[in-house]
Amino acid sequence: MTSSTHSSDTGVPSPNGPAAIAHDVFNLLTVLYGHQDDLEGLPPGLSERGHLIASAKGIVSRLEEIGRLLVALSHAQKQG
User: Fold this and answer.
1) Which structural domain, as residue segments, surrounds residue 63?
2) Residue 45 main-chain phi, psi, to 5 deg
């Protein structure tokens, strides 16, 4: 088993495991935080606005939780 995989877009070896996945999750969160601002800027009369904002907030909340769990798992693996 190897300790790295190749990123499909760059061909550069990248680490795998919980820490790498957590890093990717937090990168996705950064993008989603920016798009939440875009959603907040939608016209108040748009019927889907409330649903879109609530869905985005739910996704962000769940990804934050997953990221924290992955970081904790990574730390546990390093200590064990």
Assistant:
1) 16-79
2) -80, -5
Q: Return d(Cα 36, Cα 58) in angstroms, integer.
A: 11
The pTM of the full predicted model, rounded to 2 decimals, is: 0.68
Contact residues for 3 (Cβ-Cβ < 8 A; gap 6+): 15, 16
35: Cβ–Cβ under 8 A, 6 or more apart, which residues?
Answer: 56
CA distance 18 to 79: 14
Q: What is the pLDDT of residues 5-33, one digit of tens each?
A: 444 555 554 567 888 889 999 999 999 88
The count of domains in the chain is 1
The pair of three-digit structure tokens given for residue 13, joined into one six-digit string: 């070896």
- Residue 11 located in a structural domain: no
Retrieve residue 25's tokens. 């999750």
Q: End-to-end distance of the chain based on CA atoms, in angstroms?
A: 19
